[in-house]
């Protein structure tokens, strides 16, 4: 199975390196591109997939990762995204375990390392696709295209579109999937290595290994199953040595019937049957695991899939494909999210953007024609496998088989980038270019290396933007100014860092761009509530729950605003609506308890707070409010019991210690009360109220010198502390009287 070395390999502007040095060079370039991201934070989707995912915690049963989706939700839940990637979640869990917590450095370092390994392995993949399975007399592989495969691997390693997959930790799924995709393909190729091997002779064990690695790739990300298609095409074109040029020449030029029996062998039928069986089994297993059916996406996630007109739906899908192609060709406009108005729908045949999809198909048809009809066999093979790698891994994201939850996602192009890199090599196989004078060829080579250098710089810059949410979100403003989610995320980041005034501007713009953006309304309403702009806050939150009646958080926030406006009946109804749509909502029960306490419905308040602590045992505010309410109503014994129960769960909560100490002091349990005050001050030594109340305790207890000390400490921390000055003056008079009596 020997293929001649492509005559154009020597035109590639790279030195001929050995296998080890080639891999080291590619790995080094990969490292330079993305090393900036090693000390980045958890950003964007990392919050849901890692920070809020209980499956990463070592205390959570390991079996949960096989029952839950990528985001930690049960697969049977209607809210689940159905993304089943247990092996990826397992690597997150290992990161957590090795680092002893959620520290992003380890997560980022592993992502960068994976990309380096994948890029180095691409040399073998490209060499096999371009040069075939050539062997010498000892059955040793020959590297037919060492320079071409190295250049393609370098362009793959340094493609800026990879930044989301490498610098974003959730991109681990794409990296692991790509790694096992490569190993599955290379294992499939190993099945045909050996002296005298022909298409009907192959190693069953290596085929089985390849199928198992395909299953592993699919457990990292669903896209992994597409390696079966690549393996099948490689088998037909390379192992069975199907001559596409001769076949198309017979069919289209001579109009003769092709003798398919020449290249269809018993071995091929067996192998294709194995691939088909494995693919069907994996899809069936995936369907069974998915449970309730496909995930439910909304119109804002993928507006084209909700278009009623089939023609416009197809046009917009093709427009999305053209944008993906543009990202591969010119990856300078990159964005973390392309939904919510970033790509407006094409709504008529007169929209000028239709030109882009026409151009896309013109280019694809041209490439397909060259792949089928070019008399140069190496060019045909390079173009064919370029198209195969470009299209097949992209199919799960194409909306052809099922609706996807995004418009464009840069991470899904990770494997397809390999398909983009292969056709670019054909530039060195164009006869006109190969006949250029030496200076012009050097100029072409210099331009190619300059492009590679620009990509490296762009990767480094883009990976730096991914190190924090602030830089990531603000970088998207110039790329997708019409994207409401971009403005929302910029506003949320500003609000999280305390800059609420600036956040208001971005939340308002998000609502303007997308008038039904309930999450932006909710967050904006919260900020306005804190600024005491209650009327506008009520209007926004009322609109949000009108648009989405099951939005529990908005109902609760509406209740808080209505409570502040003294609309108690409406507030109570809003709280109960929130609980109706989210049964386990401890914060809502807490706020409901505050409403009841304000209305002097003490029993209802205690019941609400007790519900909050039952749903969330460490709900400090609910525990503390129960102690305070029982204290204020004279139920000191019950308050003591509640306080001590709370401290069993929250042994270092200084606010509960403070409230319990007050209760014990009123019961004249001075020694025990003193202990809780002192423990609270160890945790929070600058609490003026704690010093003041401890001084009152000592005052009552007769320890006047200690009382004086803590009154003075309290006044030093808060000179205007209510009642403390008066109590301190009383103590001073008492001390003066004692001195006079002693004198």
TrEMBL record:
Main location: endoplasmic reticulum
InterPro entries: O-mannosyl-transferase_TMTC, TMTC_DUF1736, TPR-like_helical_dom_sf, TPR_rpt
Keyword Membrane: yes
TPR repeats: 484-517, 518-551, 552-585, 586-619, 688-721
Keywords: Endoplasmic reticulum, Membrane, Repeat, TPR repeat, Transferase, Transmembrane, Transmembrane helix
SMART domains assigned: TPR
GO cellular component: endoplasmic reticulum; membrane
Membrane-traversing stretches: 20-38, 87-106, 112-133, 201-219, 225-247, 268-287, 319-340, 352-372, 384-402, 414-434
GO BP terms in the entry: endoplasmic reticulum unfolded protein response
GO molecular function terms attached to this record: dolichyl-phosphate-mannose-protein mannosyltransferase activity
E.C. numbers: 2.4.1.109
Limits of the DUF1736 domain: 293-365
Localization annotation: Endoplasmic reticulum; Membrane
Domain of life, per lineage: Eukaryota
Associated pathway: Protein modification; protein glycosylation
Membrane topology: Multi-pass membrane protein
Family named by the database record: Belongs to the TMTC family.
Name under which the protein is recorded: dolichyl-phosphate-mannose--protein mannosyltransferase
Biological source species: Astyanax mexicanus
């Amino acid at each position: 199975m020997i293929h001649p070395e492509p005559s154009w390999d020597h035109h590639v502007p790279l030195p001929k390196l050995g296998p080890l040095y080639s891999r080291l060079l590619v790995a080094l370039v990969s490292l330079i591109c993305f090393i900036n991201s090693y000390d980045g934070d958890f950003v964007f989707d990392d919050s849901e997939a890692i920070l809020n995912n209980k499956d990463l915690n070592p205390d959570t049963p390991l079996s949960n990762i096989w029952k839950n989706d990528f985001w930690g939700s049960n697969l049977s839940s209607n809210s689940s995204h159905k993304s089943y990637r247990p092996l990826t979640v397992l690597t997150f869990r290992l990161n957590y375990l090795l680092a002893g917590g959620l520290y992003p450095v380890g997560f980022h370092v592993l992502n960068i390392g994976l990309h380096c390994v994948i890029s180095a392995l691409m040399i073998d993949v490209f060499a096999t696709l371009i040069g075939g399975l050539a062997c010498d007399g000892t059955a040793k592989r020959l590297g037919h295209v060492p320079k071409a495969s190295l250049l393609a691997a370098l362009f793959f390693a340094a493609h800026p579109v990879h930044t989301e997959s490498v610098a974003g930790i959730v991109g681990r799924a794409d990296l692991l999937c790509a790694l096992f995709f490569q190993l599955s393909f290379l294992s499939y190729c190993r099945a045909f290595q050996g002296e005298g091997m022909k298409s009907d002779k192959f190693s069953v064990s290596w085929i089985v290994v390849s199928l198992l690695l395909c299953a592993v790739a699919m457990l990292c990300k669903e896209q992994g199953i597409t390696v079966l298609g690549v393996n099948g095409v490689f088998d037909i074109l390379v192992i069975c040595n199907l001559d596409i040029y001769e076949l198309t020449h017979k069919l289209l030029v001579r109009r003769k019937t092709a003798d398919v029996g020449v290249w269809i062998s018993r071995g091929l039928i067996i192998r294709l049957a194995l691939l088909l069986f494995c693919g069907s089994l994996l899809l069936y297993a995936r369907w069974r695991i998915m449970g309730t059916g496909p995930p439910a996406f909304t119109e804002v996630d993928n507006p084209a899939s909700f278009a009623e007109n089939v023609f416009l739906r197809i046009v917009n899908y093709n427009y999305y494909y053209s944008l993906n192609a543009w990202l591969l060709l010119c990856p300078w406009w990159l964005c973390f999210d392309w939904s919510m108005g970033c790509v407006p729908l094409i709504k008529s045949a007169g929209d000028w953007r239709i030109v882009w999809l026409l151009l896309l198909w013109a280019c694809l048809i041209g490439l397909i024609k060259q792949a089928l009809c070019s008399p140069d066999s190496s060019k045909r093979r390079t173009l064919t496998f370029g198209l195969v790698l470009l299209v097949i891994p992209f199919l799960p994201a194409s909306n052809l088989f099922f609706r996807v939850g995004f418009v464009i996602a840069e991470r899904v192009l990770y494997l397809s980038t390999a398909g983009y890199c292969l056709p670019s090599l054909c530039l060195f196989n164009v006869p006109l270019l190969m006949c250029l004078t030496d200076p012009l060829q050097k100029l072409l080579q210099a331009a190619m290396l300059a492009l590679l250098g620009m990509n490296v710089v762009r990767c480094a810059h883009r990976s730096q933007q991914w190190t924090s949410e602030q830089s990531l979100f603000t970088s998207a403003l110039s790329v997708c100014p019409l994207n409401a989610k971009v403005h929302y995320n910029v506003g949320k980041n500003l609000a999280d860092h305390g800059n609420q005034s600036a956040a208001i501007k971005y939340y308002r713009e998000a609502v303007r761009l997308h008038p039904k953006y309930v999450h932006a309304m909710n967050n904006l309403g919260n900020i306005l509530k804190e600024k005491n702009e209650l009327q506008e806050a009520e209007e926004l939150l009322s609109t949000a729950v009108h648009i989405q009646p099951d939005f529990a958080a908005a109902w609760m926030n509406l209740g808080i605003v209505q409570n502040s406006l003294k609309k108690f009946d409406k507030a109570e109804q809003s709280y109960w609506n929130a609980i109706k749509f989210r049964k386990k909502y401890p914060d809502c029960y807490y706020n409901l308890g505050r409403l009841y306490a304000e209305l002097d419905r003490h029993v209802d308040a205690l019941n609400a707070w007790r519900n909050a602590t039952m749903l969330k045992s460490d709900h400090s505010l609910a525990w503390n409010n129960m102690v305070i309410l029982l204290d204020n109503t004279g139920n000191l014994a019950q308050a003591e019991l509640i306080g001590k129960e709370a401290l069993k769960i929250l042994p270092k909560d200084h606010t509960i210690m403070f409230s319990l100490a007050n209760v014990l002091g009123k019961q004249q349990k001075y020694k025990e009360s003193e202990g809780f005050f002192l423990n609270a001050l160890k945790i929070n030594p600058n609490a003026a109220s704690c010093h003041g109340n401890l001084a009152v305790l000592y005052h009552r207890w007769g320890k006047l010198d200690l009382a004086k000390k803590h009154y003075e400490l309290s006044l030093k921390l808060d000179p205007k502390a209510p009642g403390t000055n008066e109590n301190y003056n009383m103590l001073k008079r008492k001390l003066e009287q004692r001195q006079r009596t002693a004198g």
